[in-house]
Structure formats: structure tokens, C-alpha cells
Design brief:
35% of the residues lie in helices and 0% in strands. The protein is an all-alpha fold and 52 residues long.
């Protein structure tokens, strides 16, 4: 796999992960207009996702 292909794959993975991030206000409360899934206070990240 070339460096360009790796970069493209990582960029796609990053876009998907960012879409999943819960939106929050400056005070850390859920912001429904920001999109994402879940509550920011419950978000633990994606440690189990292995990068290519």
C-alpha cells in the first residue's frame, strides 16, 4: 500500500470518527444542532479501533 493510499484511508477513517463525536456546548452539555451520537459526558473515545 502506497503512502498516498494510506493517507486516503486514514482521512476517510478520521471523517467517520468525527461524525460520531457528540456535539457539545461550551459548558459541555449536548448540542443537538452539532450532530454526533450520544452525550459528551458519556463519550469514552474509540480506543478499540485499530488504525491501518
Amino acid at each position: 500500500m502506497s503512502d498516498a493510499e494510506k493517507r486516503e484511508e486514514l482521512e476517510e477513517l478520521a471523517k467517520e470518527r468525527v461524525e460520531e463525536l457528540p456535539g457539545e456546548t461550551a459548558l459541555g452539555h449536548r448540542d443537538p444542532e452539532a450532530g454526533g451520537e450520544g452525550d459528551p459526558q458519556d463519550y469514552e473515545g474509540n480506543r478499540d479501533v485499530k488504525l491501518p
